[in-house]
User: Which sequence fits this backbone?
């Protein structure tokens, strides 16, 4: 590994100033689970690492307008075990629980999972389905983006040079709604997904028809994607095998998987169609329970 300098600033302003000063040579480090491996493999060779770990408050998980705001430095394990997340958005706790092993989850951070922009990661999929927004900060100020617009290409995000992810805001689910995350991994339980699907479904007050749905997928292309075509088929419809089949076919047409050691592109496309049906079924069931509770 190439020798590098290391800074651990105490404030965000300091971190941004160091990033600005060192330009392309500098790289943010959070949990280090991806970056250190990439440095060892010489895929990246930064001359300057700027750690975010000493910035106070950046790991906070807090209530936000009925939803939740998660600081960029919160670890996957923090999210998985947070009583607030478990109470308000159990699907999010469940999604983070499905990441790798406890050892990785104790180190990897929410900001790192977003900035790394690996299309095989779990958290972005559920964050897209939940309609979350990424908060970004640079020396020119702050901005926020829907998570689905944050991913631009293979390992490429919308972050401009010198910008950092500072958090993610996840809205509360609408009344009479349910959510589910399905990670299909036929190899080992701590692997990346072969295909991952997250879905949210809102039903009308009597639970008869779908009011709205959001569907997101991971490991099916160069970025996580939102399946808007399939979502459009669900609005106003009654639940049933025919509807799920239609949604599955729409998803199969929308994905563009890469063949790798987890499966061929054709296999992943097929499984995306199947898994979307499972995720929608679970989200719909949860929405019916929620609708009963609101009656
Ligand atoms: C063996 C293994 C298995 C894994 N399996 C899974 C899995 O199944 N599912 C899954 O979802 N994840 C999995 N992960 C974790 C995932 O791939 C990343 O390693 C992790 O999300 C990166 O988080 P980090 O905090 O460690 O980031 P780091 O390694 O510190 O950084 C990663 C990248 O993001 C940048 N960065 C970090 N934080 C910020 C920030 N706040 N603002 C701007 N840029 C930032 C860094 O500069 C770097 O480019 C696995 C990791 C390992 C090592």
Assistant:
């Amino acid at each position: 590994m190439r020798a590098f300098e290391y800074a651990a600033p105490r404030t965000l302003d300091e971190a941004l100033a160091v990033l600005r000063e060192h330009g392309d040579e500098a790289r943010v480090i959070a949990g280090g689970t991806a970056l250190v491996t990439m440095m060892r493999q010489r895929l990246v060779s930064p001359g300057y690492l700027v750690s975010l770990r000493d910035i106070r408050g950046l790991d906070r998980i807090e209530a936000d307008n009925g939803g939740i705001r998660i600081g960029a430095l919160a670890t996957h394990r923090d999210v998985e075990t947070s009583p607030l997340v478990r109470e308000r958005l159990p699907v999010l706790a469940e999604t983070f629980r499905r990441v790798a092993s406890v050892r990785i989850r104790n180190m990897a951070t929410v900001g790192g999972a977003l900035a790394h922009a690996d299309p095989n990661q779990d958290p972005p999929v559920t964050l897209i389905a939940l309609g979350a927004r990424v908060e970004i900060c640079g020396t020119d100020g702050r901005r926020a983006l829907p998570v689905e617009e944050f991913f631009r290409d293979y390992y490429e995000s919308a972050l401009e040079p010198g910008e950092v992810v500072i958090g993610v805001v996840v809205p509360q689910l609408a009344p009479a709604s349910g959510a589910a995350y399905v990670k299909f991994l036929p190899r080992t339980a701590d692997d990346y997904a072969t295909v991952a699907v997250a879905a949210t479904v809102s039903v009308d007050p009597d639970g008869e028809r779908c009011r709205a749905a959001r569907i997101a997928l991971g490991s099916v292309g160069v970025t996580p994607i939102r399946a808007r075509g399939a979502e459009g088929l669900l609005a106003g419809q009654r639940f049933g095998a025919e509807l799920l089949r239609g949604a599955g076919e729409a998803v199969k047409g929308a994905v563009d998987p890469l063949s790798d050691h987890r499966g061929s592109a054709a296999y992943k496309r097929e499984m995306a169609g199947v898994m979307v049906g499972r995720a929608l079924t679970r989200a719909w069931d949860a929405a019916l329970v929620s609708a009963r509770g609101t009656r």
Q: What stands out?
A: The radius of gyration is 19 Å. Residues 265-294 form the longest helix (30 residues). The CA atoms of residues 120 and 192 lie 6 Å apart. DSSP finds twelve helices and 14 strands in the chain.
